[in-house]
């Protein structure tokens, strides 16, 4: 497996791969089975799988966890090699933003971004789209896999691809969970043992709500009855438009704060 850190070296490597179907898995590192599921999916479809590991400063607001975001590069490289990824690209912030953050940015579709995570994290999706488009332009992948764990992000990336006529096929991958139901996340590393237990109320609430809604209860009522003070949001939304809805099709979205850790999860109904 190749490990490259500069735009110049990866571009020159890619010259040798012109006839290959290339997949990109964009990550911020601290890899876990959720990320590995994306690599596995890509291995089924593509000839050459590239994993990018880059903690993107552009998508963090000043009060967020940019500086403490977990960094486990050696372990990440081992995991990628085990999954038979072909190349890991782990550039520095200076490599990606040589002129700092005062750069041209992509603006996310406001209908999709002005809700859920976009409310409390106003820089998030513009920052994500800007780095994703930069990675697409550097790597020129044929396909890219993104996780449904970040469902709003997935829709916003798909919309950018449509709006900007990008020739990249997006493959969504289902949420990978721990045995007890907690969605895997690099941020789970922040949780103490007690907080890890407390965090289970997020997937448990989603499952209970799903069950009650499937039995015919009104989603709005269910959400009101299951509301927990740790929730930043708990909402039923249309899975394509993200408009608030009380009718099918719908998807439930939760963001909860466990201690200082902000966790998100969602479930299809
Ligand atoms: P991140 O490193 O958190 O930016 O995530 C990189 C990619 O992995 C994104 O497409 C995420 O949606 C995906 N991902 C993260 N956690 C999971 C999970 N538990 N299940 C499926 N995909 C995930």
Number of strands: 9
Q: What would you say the CATH architecture of the largest domain is?
A: 3-Layer(aba) Sandwich
Number of individual domains: 2
Mean pLDDT: 98
| Largest sheet strand order | 1-4-3-2-5-6
Bound compounds, please? adenosine monophosphate
The unreliable regions are: none
| Secondary-structure element pattern, one letter each | EHEHEHEHHHHEHEHHHEEE
CATH homologous superfamily (4th level) name of the largest domain = HUPs
CATH class of the largest domain: Alpha Beta
CATH topology of the largest domain: Rossmann fold
Shape: globular
Q: What structural class should be given to the helix and strand makeup?
A: alpha/beta
Walk me through what this model shows.
By secondary structure, the protein is α/β, with parallel strands linked by helices. It has 2 domains: about 1-175, HUPs (Rossmann fold, 3-Layer(aba) Sandwich), CATH 3.40.50.620; about 185-269, Pantoate--beta-alanine Ligase, Chain: A,domain 2 (2-Layer Sandwich). The protein has helices at about 5-15, 35-45, 75-80, 95, 110-115, 115-120, 125-140, 150-165, 195-200, 200-215, 220-225, and strands spanning about 1-5, 20-25, 50-55, 85-90, 145, 170-175, 230-235, 250-260, 260-269. It has a 6-stranded parallel sheet with strand order 1-4-3-2-5-6, with helices on both faces. The radius of gyration is 19 Å and the shape is globular. The protein starts with a strand and ends with a strand.
């Amino acid at each position: 497996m190749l490990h490259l850190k500069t735009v110049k070296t990866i571009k020159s490597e890619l010259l040798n791969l012109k006839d290959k179907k290339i997949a990109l898995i964009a990550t911020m590192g601290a890899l876990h089975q959720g990320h590995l599921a994306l690599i596995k999916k890509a291995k089924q479809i593509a000839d050459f799988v590239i994993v990018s590991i880059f903690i993107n400063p552009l998508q963090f607001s000043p009060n967020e966890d940019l500086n403490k975001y977990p960094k486990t590069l050696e372990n990440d490289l081992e995991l990628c090699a085990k999954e038979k990824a072909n190349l890991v690209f782990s550039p520095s912030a200076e490599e990606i933003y040589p002129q700092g953050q005062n750069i041209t940015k992509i603006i996310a579709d406001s209908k999709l971004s002005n809700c859920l995570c976009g409310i409390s994290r106003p820089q998030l999706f513009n920052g994500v789209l800007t780095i994703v488009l930069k990675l697409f332009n550097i790597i020129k992948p044929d396909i890219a896999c993104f996780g449904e764990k970040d469902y709003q992000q997935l829709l916003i990336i798909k919309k950018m691809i449509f709006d900007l006529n990008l020739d990249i096929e997006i493959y969504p991958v289902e949420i990978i969970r721990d045995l007890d139901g907690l969605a895997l996340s690099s941020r789970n590393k922040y949780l103490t043992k007690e907080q890890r237990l407390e965090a289970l109320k997020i997937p448990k609430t989603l499952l209970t709500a799903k069950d009650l809604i499937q039995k015919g209860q009104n989603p709005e009522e269910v959400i009101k009855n299951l509301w927990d003070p740790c929730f930043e949001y708990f909402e039923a939304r249309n899975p394509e438009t993200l408009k608030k809805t009380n009718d099918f099709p719908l998807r439930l979205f939760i963001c909860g704060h466990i201690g200082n850790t902000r966790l998100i999860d969602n479930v299809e109904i």
